UniProtKB/TrEMBL annotation:
Pfam assignment, any one: Glyco_hydro_92N
Glycosyl hydrolase family 92 N-terminal domain ranges (all copies): 26-258
Residue segments, region Disordered: 712-737
Name of the molecule in the record: Glycoside hydrolase family 92 protein
Origin species: Paractinoplanes pyxinae
PANTHER family: PEPTIDE N-GLYCANASE PNGASE -RELATED, PUTATIVE-RELATED
Hydrolase in keyword set: yes
Entry keyword set: Hydrolase
């Protein structure tokens, strides 16, 4: 799901009015991964952006293909999942099973009979070699089944990296590789400033083992060293194992990885493989068990098979990234968590980090601790962070996003973080980059950063207040009111500015920390709802989506619609829930139902756009459960769930979501027998007590409990009176809101 260009039934109703300018492709890969593990492995074609598949880089419409067929030149390690615009990405240590001479290394063969499941990937190359891969947290195990051949071989290429796109190649800076005796070798290659070490064991009885350079064998050589490699002098290099095979003979390749040297790479391999030789079956079983444990944390009842499949796959995608490599940081010597592939906070802070906080709270805390350490080492919180020297900050995307996750973690009582240490970095980070202008003038362009920073000040103030630094908290709270400087009081929308993907309509309906005042800027509930209705296409005609190579005029006409991009863009993920703050949760229900029904499917083209490291899939999980986390505000908004009931394992036990009156709506169908589906909450209760508000505190969810929702086919008055909390509520104590 998500590995191919979007291929969904034509939307009807409200969803048909949404317009998707960004690439209509999920950009996921089917490779073997472990839950939030360090290593992934997949077939390598060099395609954008993961190294797997057919597609080239594109920024709008339906993606173009690089190749006419599914193909691979081998199997590489370390891939991104679902990202949009990147220049290059990993794909290190290519392993290629061959029955051709070494001169053929680098050519691609057709792929067929692909099979993928959590922790496992398999495919047959055009050469007839069946290739299977499984991974652990820091290891990858390959198993190749050969046809009969007098000169079969397995080639390990340490010089490979990046993508087969313009500017997509990664060139090593330094490298060394050493043959350690029969069936064993080790090496380190410095890629983008990071020393990636690998320890290899190859079970190939009777085969020869040799180093090679520039596709020429080095007979008898045991070590290669490269002190300075450049684009101009790079020649491929690596290891080769060669011998005859009988029909169906298998060769196992075991690889242990580390960012702290060969000895640790070997220790990682020995720890995860234990005494099992061959190790493939045992490692696969362990990883499969870990996936089962993680995926079982969300259980649903009811729903069609397709909806359950999409939910399970979405949960799987949400638990691939970020990567955690404990005790592996190449940049600081301490033990402890090291998280990378935060690509990017802009994609994951609203939906995925809150999901990790519920399902794997220890890992969520590890992520925040790692980000604090990055800030300490490099001077600021990164917006994006890869396994590379220097943070990929993506500064144009956003500012101060780590602050939202930190504030939520503190409110939940996360004790593993030194909060005094964290607060120092939170405060300092607010005055760097765009923050300097905001601090001095109260507004900054791109105007969206004004909102980011105001929210960041609010989140930091919450932590400061809780730590009893009331003077600091008061100053931060005052500056957090600067969000209002971003809005034009005449239009009720954001001021004209540059925007990172999307326009001012996409960004104007963010869930701010003072939504009450923000709605007043728009002219009150009625005018705010009218603007939301226009944005979401209520009453509008269906639109045509961009195709391949859409002309400029077509794109300009689409942007002129000023329309919801239907989860094809990050700013739109939270916008449907803005209705909650204006007393119209029924509108939210209709929009979310339309998205769940028309924008997701079970096939390779089942995602409406980039999955973005699991950010989009996390949205699907929350929306299916009938909840939405408001990042930085310790808050969940309540909506109609997609299943009759659900149980989520939370830190405090289990959170049950039950419904009465639920009726299943299949994917791609407006209703059943032309009857309107029961989209709307009529009344609600939490732990047996009436719930008149449309929100819960995050603590309510994390401690466990039982939420019951009675549903019906028509909107009700539920949620129209008590609104989710806003910063300025205390100014109007007489109001029931």
């Amino acid at each position: 799901m998500g590995t191919a260009a979007t291929d969904l039934p034509p939307a009807r109703g409200l969803a048909s009015t949404w317009w998707f300018p960004k690439p209509q492709v999920g950009n996921t890969h089917p490779g073997a991964t472990a839950p939030l593990g360090m290593v992934s492995a997949c077939a390598y074609s060099g395609a954008y952006p993961t190294g797997y598949g057919l597609y080239t880089k594109n920024t709008e419409g339906v993606p173009e293909t690089m190749f006419e067929r599914m193909q691979a030149s081998g199997f590489t390690h370390f891939q991104q999942s679902g990202t949009g615009a990147i220049r290059k990405y990993y794909n290190y240590v290519r392993v290629t099973p061959m029955v051709q001479p070494l001169d053929a290394l680098g050519q691609s063969w057709p792929l067929s009979d692909e099979e993928a499941s959590p922790g496992y990937y398999a495919a047959t190359l055009g050469t007839g070699i069946r290739s299977e891969i499984t991974v652990g947290e820091k290891v990858a195990i390959h198993r190749y089944t050969f046809p009969a051949h007098s000169s079969a071989r397995v080639v390990i290429d340490l010089s490979c990296g990046g993508l087969a796109t313009e500017l997509g190649r990664t060139v090593p800076l330094r490298a060394q590789i050493e043959s350690m005796g029969y069936g064993r070798a080790q090496g380190t290659v410095v890629m983008e400033g990071v020393p990636l070490s690998v320890y290899a064991e190859v079970d190939s009885p009777g085969w020869r083992q040799m180093l090679w350079y520039d596709r020429r064998l080095i007979d008898g050589g045991t070590r290669l060293d490269f002190d300075s490699i450049r684009h101009t002098n790079l020649r491929p290099f690596g290891l080769l194992f060669m011998g005859s095979t009988r029909p169906g003979q298998t060769i196992e390749v075991r690889l242990g990885f580390s960012l702290r040297g060969n000895d640790q790479a070997r220790a990682n391999l020995e720890r995860e493989c234990g005494s099992d030789r061959p190790a493939f079956t045992a490692v696969r079983a362990k990883t499969r068990a870990k996936w089962r444990e993680h995926l079982n944390k969300v259980q649903v009842e009811g729903g069609t098979t397709a909806r359950r499949t999409v939910l399970s796959t979405a949960l799987y995608h949400a638990l691939i990234k970020p990567c955690f490599a404990d005790d592996e940081s190449p940049f600081w010597p301490d033990s402890g968590p090291y998280a990378f592939d935060v690509c990017t906070m802009w994609d994951i802070y609203k939906t995925q980090i809150p999901l990790l906080s519920v399902l794997v709270p220890d890992r969520a805390a590890d992520l925040l601790e790692s980000l604090i350490r990055v800030c300490e080492e490099e001077g600021n919180f990164p917006i994006g962070y890869r396994m590379a020297r220097g943070a990929d900050r993506f500064f144009r995307q956003a500012s101060a996003l780590a602050h939202t996750a930190l504030a939520d973690a503190h409110a939940l009582g996360t004790s593993r973080i030194d909060w005094a240490w964290a607060l120092v970095h939170m405060v300092d980070d607010l005055r760097r980059m765009y923050g300097e202008d905001f601090y001095e003038h109260g507004v900054v362009h791109p105007i969206t950063h004004t909102l980011d920073l105001a929210i960041g000040y609010h989140c930091t103030a919450r932590v400061a207040r809780a730590l009893n630094d009331h003077r600091l908290a008061a100053d931060l709270e005052e500056r957090s009111k600067g969000w209002i400087n971003a809005f034009d009081p005449d239009s009720g929308l954001l001021r004209n500015s540059e925007f990172y993907e999307g326009g001012k309509w996409n960004y104007s309906f963010r869930l701010l920390h003072d939504m009450r005042a923000r709605i007043e800027v728009a002219g009150g509930d009625t005018r705010f709802i009218k603007k939301l209705d226009r944005f979401f296409g209520f009453g509008a005609d269906p639109v045509k989506q961009p195709g391949r190579r859409p002309p400029a005029a077509e794109m300009a006409a689409g942007y002129a619609l000023k329309r919801f991009e239907g989860l094809n863009n990050e700013p739109d993920m939270e916008a449907p829930w803005a209705y909650h703050y204006a007393g119209r949760p029924d509108r939210t229900a209709r929009i979310v139902h339309s998205a769940l029904t028309w924008q997701f499917g079970t096939g390779p083209g089942g995602l409406p756009g980039n999955d973005d490291s699991g950010g989009l899939s996390s949205w699907y999980v929350w929306a299916s459960l009938g909840l939405f986390p408001v990042a930085g505000q310790h808050l969940f908004l309540v909506n109609t769930p997609a299943f009759g009931s659900a149980t989520v394992q939370v830190p405090g036990g289990e959170f049950h979501i039950e419904t009465s009156g639920h009726r299943e709506t299949p994917i791609g169908v407006d209703g059943i027998d032309h009857e309107p589906p029961p989209l709307y909450v009529q009344e609600a209760s939490l732990n047996g007590k009436p719930l008149h508000a449309t929100h819960l505190s995050a603590a309510d969810v994390h401690r466990g409990g039982r939420l019951h929702l009675r549903l019906g086919p028509e909107p009700s008055s539920w949620g129209s009176g008590i609104r989710p909390p806003s910063l300025s509520d205390s100014l109007f104590p007489e109001d029931t809101r």
